[in-house]
Amino acid sequence: MRILIIEDDALVADGMRRGLSQVGFAVDHVPSAELAEAALQQENFDLLLVDLGLPGVDGFELVRRLRRGGKSTPVLIVTARDALADRVGALDLGADDYLVKPFALPELAARCRALIRRSKSNSDSGITIGPLHLDIPRRETRVQSRAVDLTRREWAILECLALHAGQVVSKDRLQQAISSWDEGITTNAVEVYISRLRGKLGDDVAIRTVRGLGYRLDESVA
Amino acid sequence: MNRASAERARGMTIRRRLLLILIGPLALLLAIGVVLDYAAGVVPLRAAFDQALINETVAAAAQLRARSGGTVEFDLPPQAIEMLRADKYDTVYYLVLGPHDEYVAGDQGLPSAAPDHENPTFLDAQFKGSAIRGVTYRHATPAGVVTITVAETTNKRDQAWHRLLISILLTDTLQFAAILLLIWVGVRLGLRPLIALRAQIDSRSAQELAPLDETRVPGEVLPLTQALNRLFATVRSNAQGQQQFLANAAHQLRTPLAGLQTQLELLRHDTDAVAVRERLIGLLEGTRRLSHTANQLLALARAEPTATAAADFGDVDLRELAEEAVAKHFDRALRQHIDLGVEAARARTRGSAWLLREMLANLVDNALAYTPVDGRVTVRCGVTADASAQSYVEVEDDGPGIPPDQRARVTARFYRPPGTSGDGCGLGLAIVDEIVRGHHAALDIGSGANDRGTRVRVTFPAA
């Protein structure tokens, strides 16, 4: 998966490039928005990491131009500017997420994976989270190489968790994911399906209970 | 802000305002005075002129001679006629008509006043193109009633009215000007203590915050001076607090920086792989602490009510924020083997969503920092059961708790309770406190269930 970093601070850019390369991304770096536009003409990237305070054309303008030009490549803003207006402004322009410097590398990697997965799940056929792989058109589930047989409701719940891996998904939402087959399903039923899923998927896949809120499928950090 | 224009809009207040307020009514009074004075002066003047006319008429009547046969003769020598007509300003006309209104003497065509119950009778008319004032006297003679009219043009009278008006206008205007001048000077004298006070304030430097001298201040202004002195006292103590804060912040930022710098310098010469690795871990930890402190310092500055724009305020779903805070800290809780959960009921308030998010993050952060392994941290929100139905959020842990005598002090900036470990910078609850105050909410630090642990509750004002 290819990531383009648009960042004028060499030290920060180098850190991000190395850190993301170590966890398996292919990373390119340009120091300005103008060069980024040139690179985007030539090649395709799965994710753009954009600094707001760029020399010349700034990050806001770059995102605005990309979106106006019809590019839907996910954009993660990585900046030291954390005023509310900056966050809201960037997200309104069409950025997908916002990370404030300084940040921890694992957090950056997790956000990158989540953004790429979210954009892929619309087009691609599969979701891979650590050892877990979901083949969406065929509704097939694998852990490592082992095929796991799931009922339709179990699949629906796992798909919902996988699409939001690393995020807490509320019980209400999971209940909605399965209620299209079964009217009047209770949240207790969700607990039952979760417990069955845990049994079938084994210890390699962690579905965590968040007390009072819901469940989270852990992204295992590569 | 344009101070000069603001001063002009409000400026020179008391004197100018007093003049502006008084000038209208005073001008009206002046106008009424002029009218009344004029009316009072005109009546006797007119009476005097009219009396002179009557005298002339009566004198002329004395010259009438009745003849046998019912005719009348006006026997006035030419000198007397000249005397009658002689007038410095006005032309005098006369007309004598016999008992049958036949012409006897004088100016043909001069109008006479119609017979009236009064004798003599006055008339105002036009004759030979000018206004005249005349008197008609009906004189009984043996031959019958003779009508004598004497009239004069009104030059004399007009001139008299004119002079009267000018003198009245002159004196009244002088009075008016004198009153305005007295107000101007009087207010200036009256405001002298205020001007002195202003000079006292003006001469101070911006940094000087000593109280103003209250001994020579007039009673009306004393509350103002006292308020100013109270304000100075507050600003003084704030400035001291700011100094204290800066000193603390400098310490908090420089200490880890110094650590990082030394470690890095050592690292340049270190060749032992294990030692390098150890130093790197230390460096990472130091950097993490430094960025935490920088973030907290910024959060504190942003949380100050003066920095919060009212525009940020809106309807906030506390349940959503509580769930978000739990989701955000879930990984850390997992690592520390703490059961972090939420018990959220519907609760909303007016506030700044991002400040309240910051507040909850700090509360959960604190709870996780002070709760031992296998502990339990719960974020709750809801509405109080009493009649006021106020929204609240709270974070409860089952850690060691805060001793009651420490509870009032934990919100102080950089305050860390004795015996606490951890790498906090002592700003978390200070940030919470600022945000709570910015929302006019109440912060309550108490114990959790069964008197164990800590429960921090923020109750928002009733809608």
The overall average pLDDT of chain A, rounded, is 86
Q: How many whole angstroms does the radius of gyration of chain B measure?
A: 51 Å
Helix and strand element order of chain B? HHEEHEEEEEHHHHEHEEHEEHEE
Give the proportion of residues in helices of chain B: 40-55%
Strand count, sense and barrel status of the largest sheet of chain B are: 5 strands, antiparallel
Describe the structure.
- The complex is a heterodimer of chains A (222) and B (463).
- Chain A has 222 residues and is α/β, with parallel strands linked by helices.
- In chain A, 44% of the residues lie in helices and 22% in strands.
- In chain A, the strands form three sheets. Chain A has a five-stranded parallel β-sheet with strand order 2-1-3-4-5, sandwiched between helices. Chain A has a four-stranded antiparallel β-sheet with strand order 6-7-8-9.
- In chain A, strand 7 and strand 8 form a beta hairpin.
- Chain B is α+β, with helices and mostly antiparallel strands and 463 residues long.
- The mean pLDDT of chain B is 84.
- Chain B has helices at 3-10, 13-61, 78-85, 155-190, 192-202, 222-269, 273-303, 318-335, 353-370, 428-438; strands at residues 64-66, 72-74, 92-97, 103-106, 121-127, 130-141, 144-153, 313-317, 339-344, 348-352, 376-383, 391-397, 442-446, 454-459.
- In chain B, the strands form four sheets. A five-stranded antiparallel β-sheet of chain B has the order 4-3-7-6-5, with helices on one face. In chain B, strands 9-11-12-14-13 form a five-stranded mixed β-sheet.
- The chains are: A alpha/beta (222), B alpha+beta (463).
- The A-B interface holds A 82, 84, 102, 104, 167-168, 170, 208, 210-213, 216 and B 287-288, 291, 294, 298, 312, 323, 326-327, 330, 334, 339-344, 354, 378.
